[in-house]
Specification:
Layout: H1 3-17, H2 22-28, H3 31-39, H4 45-57, H5 64-71, H6 76-89, H7 94-103, H8 112-121, H9 126-137, H10 145-158, H11 164-170, H12 177-186
Length: 189
């Protein structure tokens, strides 16, 4: 587990929880108690997030569904923590879920972390999903520049020549051209 990610999560959750002593308990308790928090009704979001993160980074697949829900949350910090835990979880369903979230045009505002997770996973679903998302982001007036940049950079990192056409098309977009050029330069000749 990345200690910076853990400290940031703990600080954010502690602030959200206020004086609730369960923050410290959740930070130290065992996996069965953490799973009970995930399945118990009426638990606050911060408690579920902390439990899912700890379970996910411990490799416990019971956290998968909660982490996927958090990966698509409106709060970027929750998405980032969920992406980190999902990457460490190693569940074979993760890439398919991240691709589905990244390519869901109705939730494109929350696609940044699923895109980054796909790149980190280097799964077969990554390149087709990133190409599809980037193609949509090239439409005139699209306002999801951060998602487009993450796709272009990720395609360069993944190094699949199939990305060449969409990266060439991205060269014509101000604000995206530099990243697209760098990505093209990383593709094998």
């Amino acid at each position: 587990m990345d200690q910076d990610v853990w400290r940031n999560l703990l600080a954010r959750v502690s602030q959200e929880a206020g004086e609730d002593p369960r923050v410290e308990w959740l930070a130290a308790t065992g996996v069965e108690e953490l799973n009970a928090v995930l399945t118990a009704p009426q638990e606050p979001l911060w408690a579920r997030e902390l439990a899912a993160f700890r379970l996910g980074t411990a490799g416990d697949a019971r956290a998968f569904e909660t982490l996927v829900l958090l990966l698509n949350h409106r709060e970027p910090a929750r998405c980032a923590a969920a992406a980190h835990a999902l990457a460490e979880l190693g569940d074979p369903r993760t890439a398919r879920a991240a691709a589905a979230l990244a390519t869901n045009e109705l939730r494109v505002a929350y696609a940044l972390h699923p895109v980054r997770l796909l790149v980190a996973l280097r799964a077969p679903e990554a390149v087709p999903a990133l190409i599809a998302v980037l193609e949509r982001r090239l439409a005139p007036g699209d306002r999801y520049q951060a998602v487009a940049l993450a796709c272009a950079d990720g395609l360069g990192e993944l190094g699949d020549p199939c990305a060449r056409p969409v990266l060439r098309a991205a060269l014509g977009r101000p604000g995206l051209a530099i990243v697209a050029r760098g990505a093209l330069d990383r593709l094998p000749r």
